[in-house]
Write a structure and sequence with these properties.
Number of domains: 2
Largest sheet: 3 strands, antiparallel
Number of helices: 6
CATH topology of the largest domain: DNA polymerase, domain 1
Amino acid sequence: MPTIRKRGTKWQVQVRLKDCQPLSKSFTYKSDALRWGAETERALENGNHPTLNAKLNETLAELLARYLKVETPQKKGADIEQVRLRNLMRHPLLDITVEEIVPSVFASYRDSRLKEVTSDTVLRELSLLQSIMEVAMRDWGYPFSTNPVRGVRKPKAGKPRTRRLCEG
């Protein structure tokens, strides 16, 4: 049910649904606000809202590129993360649309990467993917009910180093 309230001389409508970013708009007439609220809520429930469709048709590589551009420069280890993200964007398994993202995609990515690199590298990459999905869900309004990377079994960490520096 849309929430409608009077703000100054205008009517503001807010539509909030689970797994969707809240939408709001202001109108001069209350009847316009009621109509927009009902139409928008119906479109979100059916999955045909324009903002929702645009996000679902975006590829995972585009999502990673956005994260690389917006979030990575603010981090302390931005240079290393840029290298990891560029490597991730080249992987063929991750060239899918947001609508097709399920935990099994990341599980097959994990399995293919374990054949090429160590488990510690895969753990770092999965951790990065998990944080990207969190930002996409919470800050950018992508329609995931849960983080799909959380559902992936992580490989065991490799053995730590046993060498120590000694005199001579």
